[in-house]
Structure formats: structure tokens, C-alpha cells
Amino acid sequence: MTPRASRQAAGDQPDSGHASGPSPLGVSVVICAYTERRWERTQAAVRSALAQDPPPRQVLLVIDHNAKLAQMARRELGGVAILENAGAPGLSGARNTGLAAATEPVTVFLDDDAEALPGWLASLTEPFARADVVATGGSVRPRWPGARPAWLPPAFDWVVGCSYLGLPDAQVPIRNPIGANMSMRTGLALDAGGFSTIVGRVGGKPRGCEETELAIRLTASQPGGVVLYVPTAAVDHYVARERVRLGYFLRRCWNEGVSKAIVVRLAGAGPGLERERQHATVVIPRAMAADLRAFCTGKPAALARAVVAAFGLAAATGGYLSGRLSAAGAPQRAARGGQPRLAAWRAARR
Questions:
Q1: Is residue 45 a contact partner of residue 113, using CB atoms and an 8 Å limit?
Q2: Helical H runs in 222-273?
Q3: Domain spanning 3-242, CATH class
């Protein structure tokens, strides 16, 4: 077995560390980028990963079908390997390219518009000392372009890719991490087929849920496996100005519903909607009630939050029903989407 294959085989077990390496956990960090408009943010994301103590053994920047951006990255960045997405355009394909190229037992994903805080990497990967942990997710703090929008309900901060009201505040098992800040055992993720290209963001299209669907497969593939939420593993996520507009909010909610319908088609309604039921029936109604009470005490912005929450819930529900209807009309086409055979792809590249 080659040294690379040996490292890959170790990916299914907690890594005991190598005396000669800078990181005792054997970590590859993958950052995916697709546009020059975020170049300064992308550079900051790379710097924040390299600055961790201990640092990752490998940092991969995957460029999603943008030759100009790839050339810029190769010219201006040091200490990081630059790859180009070898799969389907979009975030899932780019993440799969990084996952297939990762050489370490644990692969960490950081968004190109996020900046890791000190201690992030150590906190995020420490739980892999437990044999039952298949993946982890950290907290994602919004960094607004100005003041936080007064109309945006905290229960909907997932719209801008950040931690939201309803997430736990302790290290506990969850169904899935937030994609901007997550890690997983490399070998298990490869064996599970990686990220589905049926779901996930392509360019600026506000879809998602590829990390949800993969997390469900990861836990299903490992008896007793858990995804652990680690709120102390924190990153700052820059929120673009166009994402703090009501139109974007409603489009994102609709597309989240469509994406959840695809996840249900792939994983079943039980795991696919486990968290959403709780959020829609408990967390959001309680937050709306609190905002209505606040409005009655003379806080007008609270009424706006309650109304926006109602519209957001309606948009997400509408998107989900639309997705389910589309699936009913073309079940075979959805089934043929399949998962890329990443383990075989990686073996072929050795």
C-alpha cells in the first residue's frame, strides 16, 4: 500500500497524529471560489486557514470553472495548492474536487467569503478523537455590510449562510453542519460518494442543502455515527450587500424549499425534514410571538420581523411543494442523478 493509500485508509479512524507533521489530526482544508468579485475575501479566508495553530497540513483552493480566477490565484497566493473543478459546475462539484485531492484523514470546508477565528481548526477537529464522530460543524457569525437589518428575523439567519436562532449553544449531535464551516472524515465521505450535484449552489443561484444530504448519508453509512456541532469553532461570514434585501430573502427561502424537496427525494422525509419540522412548528412561531409582544410594547421593527418570518415560512413551504410536484412528474430522471464514484476517481489518480 502506498503512503497516500495508507493515509486514506486511516481516514476512517481517529488519527493519532504524526510526529513529523504540524497538525496532530492530519487536516486538509478546502476552500472553493468561483468569482473574482470576492478575491479579497478569498485571500482573507486562505490566510485565516494558514494562520491556525496548529496549522493544517494541506490547504486546497478549488476554482469553479473560472480560468482567469485560477491564474490570479496561482500568481498571488502562496502556501496553498490551486485546483480547478474537475466535475460539474457548482459548489458540489468543486467540493468533490477538493475532497478527492485531500491527502489527510479529516477534510475541512471553509467558505471563500468566511474568515476563521483563532482556535477554529483545533476546536472543529478535536471531536474526531471520538470514533463515532463522522463530521463536525462550527458556528458561523454574520459580518454585516452595515448594521444588522432590523427586519431580518434571527430564526432566518440561515438565509445568509449563518448560524440562526434554534441551533444549540453546546457541543451536541445535530443532523447536519452549515456548509461554510464543517469537517468530515475524508475516507467516509469518499466512500459515501461525496456531495450530490443534484443539489447545491451553482454560481449565485441561491440553492443549497448539499451538506445536509451528505451528512445524512454519512451517519447512515456508519452505525452509531454522529455529526457534532461545535459552537466554539467559529468563523466570521461576510454578508454581501445584495443579500440583505427582501427580494433575495424570499428567493432564498423559496429555493431552500425546493432544495429540501430534493433532499427528501434522495434521503426520505424522516431525516430530510427532521430539523425543519421543529424549526417551522416551534422555533419560528415562538419568535413571531415574541416579536408581536415586543411590537405591543412600542418596538415597530418587531412587527416587520414577524411579518417577514411569516412570508419566509410561506415561501419555503411553497418552494418545497413545488419541488415535490416536480419530483412526482419525473421520478426516474431524479433517480438517475446518482452520486460520483469519488473513491474510484481518487484511486485512478494515484
A1: yes
A2: 246-267, 269-272
A3: alpha beta
